[in-house]
Structure formats: C-alpha cells, structure tokens
Please model this.
Amino acid sequence: MPKTHPIVILTGAGISAESGLETFRSADGLWANHRIEDVCTPEALARDPALVHHFYNQRRAALASVAPNAAHQALARLEQAWPGELLIVTQNVDDLHERAGSRRIIHMHGALNSALCAACGERQPWQGDLPPGAPCAACAAPMLRPDIVFFGEIPYHMDRIEATLARAGLFVSIGTSGAVYPAAGFVRMAGALGIPTLEINLEPSAGSGWFDECRHGPAGALVPAWVDALLAG
Ligand code: OAD
Model:
C-alpha cells in the first residue's frame, strides 16, 4: 500500500481485553452489570453524580493493575517503524496505547486520566478517585466530571478523524463490536472512498460485512502478525 497515505486504526475495548480490562458487551461485560442510563448519560450525572463518579473511579482504579498487551505493543512498534503517517483513533478510555509507546492517538470517547470542568470546559490531568464537586483548577467551580463522552454527547475530534480518514490508504478496526456510532460508521466512510478496510476482532462484529477483509481471533496474536507482515511487505 502507498506509504504516502495514512493508516487509520480504530480500536475498541477488545484490544484491552487480554490486559484484563472488561469489555462492554460481552456476556459478563460492563453493560451486563450496569445500566447505561445509570452511569453513562448527562442525565445520570445530573441525577446521581455519586453513582456516575463511583463507576468511573472503579474504571480508573482498574488501570493501576493492568499493562499493555502484545496488540498495543505491536501498534506502537508499527508507528515507530512505518515510514508514513499512522493515527490510532481509540474508543477506549484507558491509557494502554500511550503506555505501550504509541504517540499519535485520538481518544474519541474521552480518557479516564483526565477531568473535565462542566462549567468552563477546561481539562486537567487526573489520577485516583474523582469525587463529585471537586473544584476546577482553572475557574474554581466545583464541577469537575469524568472526561468521558456520555451517550448523547458528541465524540471528540471528529473533524480531525474524518479529515485523516478521507485521505487514508488503509483503515483497520481492532477489537470493537461496531455497535456505537459514529465510530461504527468509519468503515462505510472508508469503503465509499475506495480505501481498503480490515477488521481484526475476536468474532464477527455488527459491521463485519462492510470490511474488505476480516480476521477473527484474539488481538494479542493477530495484531502482531498483521504488523509483522505489513512491515515485511
Ligand atoms: P464492546 O464491548 O462493544 O466490543 C468489544 C469487541 O471486542 C467485541 O466484538 C468482542 O468480540 C471483541 N473482543 C473481545 N476480546 C477480544 C480479544 N482478545 N481480541 C480481539 N477482540 C476481542 O466494546 P467497544 O466496541 O469498544 O463508549 O464499545 C464501543 C463503545 O461502547 C465504548 O467506547 C463505550 C461503550 O459504550 C462509551 O462509553 C461512550
């Protein structure tokens, strides 16, 4: 493939599963044990901030005991070795891509290690528990919230994602069920532009039929193999 066009890689919870983080839609995943309406909407935050903060405090705490796996590491290796541009667009709110060494990452659904001021919109790095009512470092309003894109909110950096996708040479989707838009629509956008598309996922996703090629199995094995072949080619 031409090295003058970017590789755009969309990742989802499946890439972090082998690190020990729960996915959302597996039989025992996060959305089997928590209602989205209770913990992941602006209305839930207004109604019961303690519950929403507790849910994300648990997710943030879980990061301390996990490490990047072979799939994260392979993508970081690809970014280092690939002579062209590479962009990871992740739906994940963990920091495992960064910890593996990837640098060009967009967190389209936000990040656990960041807090967002609901009053002024400023962000600040955050580690440990975020209690409801914590004051913003910029404006002092006691309105810091998890920097997470809730259902009903607009994902971050869509302009940059779509602009890069529009000139991509390859679109790869790794470890995502294809259940949540707009990310689930990237494959069709790429396809409409004639950009080759590849899915790497444990099982067929909701959008498998839209991909030119699908490889099904664990990301920890399939992603390093794909990276090795791309770099050898
Ligand atoms: P899902 O839980 O919906 O899907 C995870 C996908 O990863 C499934 O298709 C699994 O089969 C696959 N998978 C599991 N283990 C894997 C492995 N070892 N290797 C490869 N694939 C594996 O998670 P997402 O698609 O990321 O949004 O969910 C999208 C969004 O829905 C999330 O960002 C989150 C959620 O609601 C917000 O919270 C805003």
